[in-house]
Design goal:
The chain is an alpha+beta fold. It contains 7 helices and 8 strands; from the N terminus they run βαββαββααβαββαα. Strands 1, 2, 3, 4, 5, 6, 7 and 8 form an 8-stranded mixed beta sheet that branches.
C-alpha cells in the first residue's frame, strides 16, 4: 500500500479516571469530548473532517491536516477545549465530569491511503500523554480541568515565538522519562490560577507576597473534590469562564509557576 511521508502536527487527549464509571457514563463522556474537540478544532480554523482521528477508548489521537500551523493547536484550541469542558463540568453529575491530559508534538510521519498513520513521532506523543509530570499536575491541582504537555520541538516551533494568545511564561520545563523515552517537555495547566508544587519544592519567588497570601487564603476556604473540580465554583468564576471562551484570554489564568517533581 502506497504511503507518503508528511510533516504533521499531532494532538492526543486522555480522560482522567475513566475506568469504573460504567458503560453509560463513559459513552456520555465520549460524546461530550468528541463534540468539544470538534467545536474547538473548528474554532481554531482546523477542519475536523480533514483530521485523521484514532479512537483510544478513553481518549483520542488526532493528526492535523498537512500545513496546519502548530500554533493553532494551542491557541485558541487548548483554551477553547478547556473552557467547554469546564462549562460541561459545572452542570454534569460526578460520573460524567471530564478532566483531560493532553499532549502535543509534530514530526514526519507515514500516511497511508486509508488514513493510517505511523512513525516515531506517534510514539513520542504517546509517551508525553502518559508522562508522570502531566499526571502529577492534575493530581496536585484538583481545580484544573486540563493539563497539557508539549514536546521540546513543539515548544520551539509554536510556543517560544510568543504569538498572540500563547504566553511562553505559562509553560514550565519538566523532565519526561517514560519507557525508552527520555527528554524535556513543557507543561501548561490552562484556566487554573493556582500554583501546585511537588513535595519539598520551594515556593515561587516571582510571585508577590500579596498574590501568595491570596492564593493560600482561597485554598484554605475551599477544599474541592478531586473528581469534581468545578462543582463548588462561585458564580463569579463561572461568568469569567463563560465570557473568556473563544476570546483568547483564558490562558492568562494559567500564569502561575508550576514545579512538578519526578516520580515519587
Amino acid at each position: 500500500m502506497e504511503e507518503v511521508r508528511e510533516y504533521r502536527a499531532l494532538f492526543a487527549v486522555d480522560i482522567v479516571g475513566s475506568s469504573g464509571r460504567g458503560d453509560v457514563a463513559l459513552e456520555q463522556i465520549r460524546q461530550v469530548l468528541s463534540a468539544a474537540l470538534h467545536a474547538s478544532f473548528t474554532r481554531s480554523g482546523v477542519d475536523w473532517d480533514d483530521c485523521l482521528r484514532h479512537d483510544l477508548g478513553d481518549g483520542m489521537r488526532i493528526v492535523a491536516p498537512a500545513g496546519t500551523p502548530e500554533t493553532s493547536l494551542i491557541h485558541p484550541l487548548v483554551h477553547e477545549l478547556t473552557a467547554r469542558l469546564r462549562a460541561h463540568n459545572l452542570l454534569a453529575g460526578k460520573p460524567t465530569r471530564i478532566r483531560l491530559r493532553m499532549a502535543l508534538h509534530a514530526g514526519s510521519v507515514q500516511v497511508g491511503r486509508d488514513g493510517t498513520v505511523s512513525g516515531r513521532p506517534l510514539e513520542v506523543l504517546a509517551r508525553l500523554l502518559d508522562a508522570e509530570p502531566v499526571r502529577a499536575a492534575l493530581a496536585q491541582a484538583p481545580e484544573a480541568t486540563t493539563a497539557l504537555l508539549v514536546s521540546e520541538h513543539f515548544h520551539e516551533t509554536a510556543v517560544c515565538q510568543g504569538r498572540p494568545g500563547i504566553e511562553p511564561a505559562a509553560f514550565r520545563r519538566v523532565d519526561v522519562r517514560e519507557k525508552e523515552f527520555a527528554a524535556s517537555g513543557w507543561l501548561h495547566v490552562p484556566a487554573y490560577g493556582g500554583t501546585p508544587q511537588s513535595a519539598g519544592s520551594a515556593p515561587d519567588r516571582t510571585s508577590s507576597d500579596a498574590d501568595r497570601t491570596s492564593s493560600e487564603s482561597d485554598r484554605a476556604s475551599s477544599a474541592p473534590d478531586p473528581t469534581a473540580p468545578d462543582a463548588d465554583a462561585p458564580a463569579g468564576n463561572t461568568k469569567v469562564i463563560s465570557k473568556a471562551s473563544g476570546h483568547g484570554v483564558i490562558y492568562a489564568l494559567g500564569n502561575g509557576t508550576m514545579n512538578i517533581g519526578g516520580k515519587q
